[in-house]
Design a protein that fits this description.
The chain has 197 residues and is α+β, with helices and mostly antiparallel strands. It contains 3 helices and 10 strands, in the order H-H-H-E-E-E-E-E-E-E-E-E-E. It has a 10-stranded antiparallel beta barrel with strand order 1-2-3-4-5-6-7-8-9-10. The longest helix has 17 residues.
Length: 197
């Protein structure tokens, strides 16, 4: 009960402080909550969105099971205020665009003190969860995915940023309380036309 009262008070303060003041007031509220986790989250968003470039990865290891998709691409754009980004993921098959497969939204959850990650597919599947950056250059997102028929699955993504233009990601399936390795991709930043989404 005490936590709910605190949460309600924080929400009320945010609404009152932000009413009619726009992005500047929202950024000022977030500034008051600045800590190492938030600083790393902002750095992760800047890494993802820098220069309006596209991230590209080969899908050669999984091409057969993915219906001939030979590459995946994604792009993220910063939302005004610098605490959130939105983006999408699509594929290429023999040089032709396939998709989009996912739309993404990432923002800062000031109550939990973590990144908020949400994604939705055109087929109605959604993934929702939180992300942390336990150290510089590492972001871990844990989400629960739900399908329109009610099935659920837990998925973890670990993203390392070894340099300014490379993203190494690994995904895991949650099985009986353990994270079972699923896929590994190395994404490269490159100049490209905008996304089809």
């Amino acid at each position: 009960m005490r936590r709910w009262n605190r949460t309600r008070a924080l929400l009320r303060a945010a609404i009152v402080a932000g009413a009619g003041a726009g992005v500047g007031a929202q950024a000022a509220l977030a500034q008051g909550a600045e800590d190492a986790g938030l600083a790393r989250w902002k750095a992760h968003l800047e890494f993802r969105t820098r220069g309006g470039t596209v991230w590209w990865t080969s899908n050669a290891a999984y091409e057969e099971e993915d219906g001939g998709i030979d590459a995946y691409l994604m792009r993220f754009d910063m939302v005004p205020g610098g605490l959130a980004a939105e983006g999408c993921l699509w594929g290429e098959r023999d040089g032709e665009v396939v998709g989009p497969f996912w739309k993404f939204f990432m923002g800062w959850d000031p109550v939990e003190g973590k990144g908020l990650v949400y994604q939705a597919s055109p087929g109605g599947m959604v993934g929702n969860g939180h992300a942390t950056s336990p150290e510089e250059g590492l972001t871990i997102a844990e989400q629960v995915f739900r399908t329109p028929d009610g099935a659920t699955a837990s998925v973890r993504h670990e993203t390392r940023e070894p340099d300014a233009d490379t993203d190494e990601s690994r995904s895991f399936d949650g099985v009986d309380g353990e994270w079972v390795p699923r896929r590994t991709y190395t994404w490269h930043r490159r100049e490209a036309d905008g996304p089809p989404c």
